[in-house]
Amino acid sequence: MAKIGGSCLNTKDDIRRTIELVEKVEEKPILVVSAFKGVTDELIAQARNALTASFDIKKIEKLHYDFIEDLSPSMKAKTEKRVRALLKELRETLLEVSYRQELSPSNKDRIVSYGEKLVTVVVAAYLTDSGFKAKALWGSDAGIVTNSNFGNASILDESTRLIRERLDTSYVPIVAGFFGKDKEGRIVTLGRGSTDYIATFIAATLNCEVTLFKDVDGLMTADPKIVKTASVIEKINYLDALELACYGSKVIYEKAVIPAMKAHIPIKITNFYSPTRGTTICDEGEATAISSLANVATVNLLGYPNMASLIAPLLLELSALDIHPLLLTKASRDEISMVMKESEAEIAQTTIRKIDKNTNIKVEEEFGLVTAIGSKVREKGTSSVSKFLFSKGIDINAIDRSASGRNLCVLVNKDDVPPATQALHNLFIGQS
Prior knowledge:
With 432 residues, this protein is an alpha/beta fold. It folds into two domains: 2-215, Carbamate kinase; 289-428, 2-Layer Sandwich (VC0802-like), CATH 3.30.2130. Helix content is 41%, strand content 21%. The two termini are 35 Å apart.
């Protein structure tokens, strides 16, 4: 089975390329697709505009009507009817936001899901026009049942039975990525990169290999925008890929690794436009890589007399929200610092206040986190790495093992992320 990313669905030629990929599949193919390039961002913008009654979906309408122009007359008429109905639903949802002057998490998820709904209809129409029998599926119709954590949901285990039932079809299922439905039938999105997550969950359920087609060659030894000599990682084990995802890689999403790891099925990442060997994530594979995050914050808990009694319930509460500190450092017996993404710091503060409203909290931003991953890294001590970075003129705010204890995290000032990434790449991987 295969997943086609939104950045790979930009033109009609991209849909034709997708058809060619399906033609090469020997067994019955299953496709999971993301919205056409730029559509999700446009939907988010119009959802916000709806709060001031100034939304405009003409750009989205034109894009999808243009895509169906090349279909055969009968298929075009049928597809246009479905597209028009979906756009009408979208407009009505935006009008509801305008009327209520409120963009609830539930309504936001409903609005942004239309990108995937529309693309599945269009891709299924092209495949049917090319001689395949294809059908657009989304949410629970595809077996994807989630919890109710709007914006960052997880797929429930009961989906495995439903997926086997609902994807055992005579047609080619074109499954919408990015969202599912909760037990109450509400649309819930699954967060960044979650089309990968849906694809790997389905593959794990059906015990088949999954290929994630993207606009890059695979996982890299570092962000190529920072390290020009970064190279493709051909094979990496699940745990190191998971760390690479957690600590900054935009190529693979951490949730996507877990179903494959549990089922021991390989994930292949390759370039949609020029398929190469790419990266294979599997049980075995030694790789060294440097991952980086430019916007992290420290949430410092100060002067709490029994820190252990606060941290344990706090981590449980955050985990329920699918938030996991990237680094946990203990400055003293009554002072602990959590390093997390800036976007999660406010949620962490609210959660701490729920547990104990009197806790002294200090939040600091403008940090970056650079993480070295792999067996070579695990052989090095923190002191030798610290000395090396100091010799390169890089100030270190903290250095410690990652939350899993496997790899090495370095907290630096935000502006020092690029030089620290380059320096650690040189140290562990080499300059060329």
